[in-house]
Amino acid sequence: MLTALEIARQATLKPIAEIAADIGIPPWLTEHHGDHVAKIDLKAIEELKDRPKAKYVVVTAITPTPLGEGKTTTTIGLGQAFAHIGRKATIAIRQASMGPTFGIKGGAAGGGYSQAVPFENLNLHLTGDMHAVTAAHNQLSAMVDNHLYKGADPRLDLNQITWRHVMDVNDRSLRNIVAGLGAAGDGVPRQTGFDITAASEAMAILALSTSLKDLRRRLGNIVVGYTKQGDPVTAEQLKAAGAMAVIMKDALKPNLLQTLENTPVIVHAGPFGNIAHGNSSVVGDLIGIRTGDFLVTEAGFGADMGSERFFNIKCRTSGLKPDAAVVVATVRALKAHSGKYKVVAGRPLPEEMLAENPDDVSAGAANLRRQLENVRAHGVEPVVAINAMPSDHPSEHAAIREAAAALGVRTAVCTHFTDGGRGAAELAEAVAEAASTPNGFSFLYPLDASLKDKIETVATRIYGADGVDYAPLAEKQLAGYERNGFGNLPVCIAKTQYSLSHEPSLKGAPTGFRLPVREVRASVGAGFVYPICGDMRTMPGLAAHPAAESIDLDDDGNIVGLY
Question: What is the pLDDT of residue 90?
Answer without folding.
Answer: 98
